[in-house]
């Protein structure tokens, strides 16, 4: 802008000079006319006048050359100013393009980070929802299974109400009564012990067949359980009305129980093959209660012969004790395997702790990424606002190239 002012001032000075030169030429022409009128006197002055005209012609030529040089300088100044403005505009466009490119790159980077964070969060939420749905489905399945069991139990109760009517017929026959006791014993044993811990209808070395043989480790060794059901003497005792009938029923019941105890002691206690004791299974809690309430001498006799009388309830308790003995023996046999499994379990617990820690770090990193994304978005917003309010006149002086100053004609 300062160069333009100087150029205009030079042009004004040159115009004044040209006007003065034109006025001098006009004056010379007037003088020439006067000299022509006075030809007589002009004849003597032709020589100097010719010299003056030649000088004036040279001055006019110099003025014309100066005007041409001034016109060229003005054109140069105009071109220089246009080039400078073009370069300023190109520089500003390049800088604006760089700023816009950096903003686009940063916004794209932030968008990618946010997309990754949202994808990871969505995956974790999907896994959590999948686990919840799976647990819910498992719970509903278990509920349906339990309802099915309840329905089945209700059906069994309905059937049982009809089976009770035929139970008396079953118990009235001695052979079917024995089968009833064996079936009940089989049911209790199969529920209390693993399948390889017992054997039904096992034949011993003496040729006697036991209802059930429990494979216990030494000591005490395999032990026999035999089912006996003295129902007829017990029913006679319950029906007795007179002392004589009652005494007769007591004798019959004691005799039947003592015979069963002796038979078991003789048949099923074998030295070196079975344990030094055996179990007599009574399939009736009522007979068992009557025996321990009023026939303690028979119970003590059984203890002396190492024959222990059990009912369904006490048999289950005894079998659970045997189960613990079998489990302890097998654990001793499998101590190495158990120790190995414990080591693997410890590693699994450590791995679980590491994965929980990794999950916690993922949650913390996701929270940190979201916070950084918010900060970057705020910065990008402020930069965009400043670019929107950008003013070229507010550029720093060092961002604008200096316009080349024109040299004066004399220089």
Question: How would you describe the overall organization of this protein?
Answer:
The chain is α/β, with parallel strands linked by helices and 411 residues long. Among the domains are: 2-110; 175-333. 77% of the residues lie in helices and 6% in strands. It is built from ten helices and five strands. It has helices at residues 2-37, 39-44, 46-172, 174-192, 231-239, 243-268, 285-294, 296-304, 312-333, 335-388; strands spanning 198-203, 209-214, 223-227, 278-281, 307-310. A five-stranded mixed beta sheet has the order 1-2-3-4-5. Strand 1 and strand 2 (209-214) form a beta hairpin. Helix 5 (231-239) runs antiparallel to helix 6 (243-268). The longest helix has 127 residues, at 46-172. The chain is rod-shaped and about 205 Å long. The relative contact order is 0.08. Residues 164-173, 392-396 and 399-411 have low confidence and may be disordered.
List the helices and strands and how they pair.
Elements: H1 2-37, H2 39-44, H3 46-172, H4 174-192, E1 198-203, E2 209-214, E3 223-227, H5 231-239, H6 243-268, E4 278-281, H7 285-294, H8 296-304, E5 307-310, H9 312-333, H10 335-388
Parallel strand pairs: 3-4, 4-5
Antiparallel strand pairs: 1-2, 2-3
Helix pairs in contact: 1-3, 3-10, 4-9, 5-6
Question: Approximately what portion of the residues adopt beta-strand conformation?
Answer: 5-15%
SSE pattern, N- to C-terminal: HHHHEEEHHEHHEHH
Helix content: over 70%
Class from helix and strand fractions: alpha/beta
Trace the largest sheet across and list its strands: 1-2-3-4-5
Major β-sheet annotation = 5 strands, mixed
Q: What overall geometry do the principal axes of the alpha carbons give?
A: rod-shaped
How many E-type strands? 5
Alpha-carbon distance between the two ends: 21 Å
Number of DSSP helical runs = 10
Mean pLDDT: 76
């Amino acid at each position: 802008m300062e160069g333009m002012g100087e150029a205009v001032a030079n042009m004004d000075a040159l115009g004044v000079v040209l006007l003065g030169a034109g006025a001098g030429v006009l004056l010379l022409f007037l003088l020439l006319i006067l000299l022509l009128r006075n030809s007589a006197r002009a004849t003597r002055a032709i020589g100097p006048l010719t010299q003056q005209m030649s000088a004036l012609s040279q001055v006019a030529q110099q003025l014309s050359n100066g005007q041409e040089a001034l016109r060229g300088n003005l054109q140069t100044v105009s071109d220089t100013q246009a080039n400078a403005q073009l370069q300023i505009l190109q520089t500003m466009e390049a800088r604006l393009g760089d700023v816009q490119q950096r903003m686009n790159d940063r916004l794209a980077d932030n968008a990618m980070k946010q997309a990754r964070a949202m994808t990871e969060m969505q995956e974790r939420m999907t896994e959590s929802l999948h686990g919840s749905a799976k647990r819910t489905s498992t719970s509903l399945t278990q509920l349906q299974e339990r309802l099915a069991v309840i329905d089945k139990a209700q059906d069994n109760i309905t059937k049982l109400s009809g089976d009770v009517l035929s139970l008396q017929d079953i118990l009235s026959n001695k052979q079917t009564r024995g089968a009833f006791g064996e079936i009940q014993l089989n049911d209790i044993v199969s529920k209390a012990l693993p399948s390889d811990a017992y054997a039904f209808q096992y034949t011993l070395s003496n040729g006697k067949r036991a209802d059930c043989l429990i494979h216990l480790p030494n000591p005490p060794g395999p032990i026999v359980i035999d089912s006996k059901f003295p129902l007829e003497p017990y029913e006679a005792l319950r029906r007795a009305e007179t002392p004589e009938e009652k005494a007769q029923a007591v004798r019959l019941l004691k005799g039947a129980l003592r015979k069963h105890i002796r038979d078991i002691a003789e048949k099923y206690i074998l030295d070196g093959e079975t344990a030094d004791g055996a179990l007599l299974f009574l399939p009736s809690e009522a007979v068992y209660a009557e025996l321990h309430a009023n026939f303690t001498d028979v119970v003590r006799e059984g203890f002396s012969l190492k024959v222990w009388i059990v009912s369904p309830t006490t048999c289950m308790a005894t079998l659970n004790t045997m189960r613990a003995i079998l489990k302890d023996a097998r654990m001793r046999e499998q101590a190495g395997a158990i120790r190995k499994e414990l080591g693997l379990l410890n590693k699994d617990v450590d791995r679980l702790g590491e994965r929980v820690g990794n999950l916690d770090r993922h949650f913390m990193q996701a929270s940190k990424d979201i916070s950084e994304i918010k900060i970057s978005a705020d910065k990008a917003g402020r930069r965009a606002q400043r670019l929107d309010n950008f003013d070229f006149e507010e550029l720093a002086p060092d961002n604008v190239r200096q316009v080349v100053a024109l040299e004066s004609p004399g220089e």
